[in-house]
Design a protein that fits this description.
InterPro entries: At4g02000-like (IPR040256). With 208 residues, the chain is α+β, with helices and mostly antiparallel strands. The chain contains five helices and ten strands; from the N terminus they run ααβαββαβββαββββ. The protein folds into two domains: 33-117, 2-Layer Sandwich (Alpha-Beta Plaits); 122-200, RRM (RNA recognition motif) domain (Alpha-Beta Plaits), CATH 3.30.70. The protein has a five-stranded antiparallel beta sheet. Strands 7-8-6-10-9 form a five-stranded antiparallel beta sheet, with helices on one face. Strand 2 (67-71) and strand 3 (76-81) form a beta hairpin. The two termini are 23 Å apart.
C-alpha cells in the first residue's frame, strides 16, 4: 500500500496550495528520548494476543521503568522504554526473545527510517558447532565458521569454569526467512574435510 502511494506521489503535480510546506514547531520535542525507543515485530502466522504478549515481554525484560507498546500496524509494534539507552542495547543483545514459541524481532528505532526498511528477518541466535577437533578451537577458526553461517556477533567456547568444551558456541545473525543451515564443512590444515553439525539454541517456530 505504501509503495503504491509513493509511486503516485512521485508523478503528482502540486497545486499552488499544495506546494506550501508545513513546518512542524514540535519536531524537536517529538524526537526527545528517541534513543529509548525500539521497533518490534512478532514473526508469527497467526495473530497473537497482543496484551498477553506485552505482559510476557515486560516480565522477561524486567526493566527498571515501565515499557509501553504501540501497534503501528497489524505486524509492527513501537516499543517505548522508560529507561536509558544502554539498557535497551542490552535487551537487544540478549535476543532472541520468544512469545508462544514465535520470534519477537526487535531493532533500535532510527530517525527518518521507513518501517519497510527495518530488517526484522535478520536475528541473532546462539549456535553450537559439533565435531570440531580440540586443536581447532581457536578464535580464528571460530570467526571463519561464524562468518560462513552469517554475521558473527559473539564467541564462547569455554564452560562456566573457564575450561575447554567439546563444542564451539557462537552467536550469529541469520536470515530467518531462509532455511536453517544444518552443517559447516570445515577443511582442516591437513586438507581433510570435517562435517560439523549445527544445533540452534532457543529456536522459534519457522515457516518458509
Amino acid at each position: 500500500m505504501a509503495d503504491d502511494i509513493n509511486a503516485l506521489l512521485k508523478n503528482l503535480k502540486f497545486s499552488e496550495e499544495e506546494s506550501v510546506r508545513v513546518i512542524s514547531s514540535n519536531i524537536v520535542t517529538n524526537y526527545q528520548g528517541f534513543e529509548a525507543w525500539a521497533v518490534g515485530k512478532i514473526m508469527a502466522i497467526e495473530k497473537p494476543n497482543r496484551e498477553a504478549m506485552y505482559r510476557v515481554l515486560r516480565s522477561l525484560w524486567f526493566t527498571k521503568y515501565d515499557v509501553n507498546f504501540v501497534a503501528l500496524n497489524e505486524e509492527v509494534i513501537f516499543v517505548k522504554f522508560g529507561c536509558v539507552e544502554d539498557e535497551i542495547e542490552s535487551l537487544i543483545n540478549m535476543m532472541p526473545w520468544l512469545f508462544d514459541n514465535c520470534l519477537f524481532a526487535m531493532l533500535p528505532f532510527v530517525k527518518d527510517k521507513e518501517l519497510e526498511t527495518y530488517e526484522f528477518n535478520i536475528s541473532p541466535f546462539w549456535l553450537r558447532i559439533y565435531n570440531i577437533p580440540l586443536e581447532y578451537m581457536d578464535r580464528q577458526i571460530a570467526m571463519d565458521v561464524g562468518k560462513a553461517i552469517g554475521e558473527l556477533v559473539a564467541i564462547d567456547w569455554k564452560d562456566r569454569n573457564g575450561g575447554w568444551t567439546e563444542i564451539m558456541r557462537l552467536k550469529v545473525k541469520i536470515n530467518v526467512s531462509n532455511p536453517l543451515r544444518r552443517v559447516v564443512r570445515l577443511l582442516g590444515r591437513n586438507g581433510v574435510e570435517m562435517v560439523c553439525a549445527i544445533k540452534y539454541e532457543r529456536l522459534p517456530a519457522f515457516c518458509y
